[in-house]
Amino acid sequence: MDDQRYCRLRVIGENLDLTGSPAALRALADLLREAGPAARVPIRNGAVVQERAEGPLVIELRGSPTLHLRGGDDALKDVWAALEAVAAEAPVDGKPAPHRHVERLVITAEAETAGEDL
Predict the structure, then answer these.
(1) Cα–Cα distance measured from residue 68 to residue 56, given in angstroms and rounded to the nearest whole number
(2) I need a surface site. Which of 32, 65, 108, 111 has the fewest CB within 10 A?
(3) pTM, whole model, 2 decimals?
């Protein structure tokens, strides 16, 4: 199963919200960390593209929708760590969903749902 496909990207005002179940966020973090110089990972409604290049973290929305991440490993590890930190927190009914901000990107955990459609 392609767990990262259970993530989705939404635009909320000036922010980009990458939402997924803890398993999906963990799978996405693993794929991005282990990727080579460039990677494209499909998600439910688009893709996450990561480009390793010298320089600071750049987060952009492209295409329909494509979250584009670019930067050196030191910059990209902030995104990987945020994905893993949010995945480690279980969503609790009645409380705000676990989330982390990395610049304009908000990573949010949602409850696991059995039988979700891709």
Answers:
(1) 13
(2) 111
(3) 0.88
